[in-house]
Specification:
Elements lengths: L1 H78 L6 H20 L1
Helix pairs in contact: 1-2
C-alpha cells in the first residue's frame, strides 16, 4: 500500500512538473510575442518621429529660402539707390544670410 501511495505521489509530482514546464513555455512564447509587438510599435514611433523631423526641416528650409530671396530683392533695390554704402549693405546681407542659415539648421 505504501508503494502504491508513493507511486501515485510520484505521478502527481511528474504531472505537476509537466504542467509547470508547459506553463513556462507558454509564458516565454507570450513574452516573445510581446517583445515583437513592442519592437514593431517602437519602429513605427521612430519612423513617425523621423518623418516629423524631416517635414519640420523642410518647412524651416523653405522659410529660410524665402527670407533669403526677400533679402536679395531688398538688396537689389538698395544697390540701385544712389548714396547707399555698398559695404554696409553687403555686410548686413552676409549677417542675414548666416542667421537664416543657422535658423534653417536648428
Amino acid at each position: 500500500m505504501e508503494g502504491t501511495i508513493l507511486l501515485e505521489l510520484e505521478r502527481a509530482e511528474l504531472a505537476a512538473r509537466e504542467r509547470r514546464l508547459r506553463a513556462e513555455g507558454e509564458a516565454e512564447e507570450e513574452l516573445a510575442r510581446a517583445r515583437e509587438g513592442a519592437a514593431r510599435i517602437s519602429a513605427g514611433v521612430d519612423r513617425a518621429i523621423g518623418e516629423a523631423i524631416e517635414a519640420r526641416r523642410r518647412a524651416l528650409d523653405a522659410e529660410a529660402r524665402g527670407e533669403i530671396e526677400a533679402l536679395e530683392r531688398e538688396l537689389a533695390e538698395l544697390e540701385g539707390e544712389p548714396g547707399v554704402d555698398r559695404d554696409r549693405v553687403a555686410f548686413r546681407r552676409a549677417v542675414e544670410l548666416v542667421v537664416a542659415s543657422v535658423l534653417a539648421e536648428g
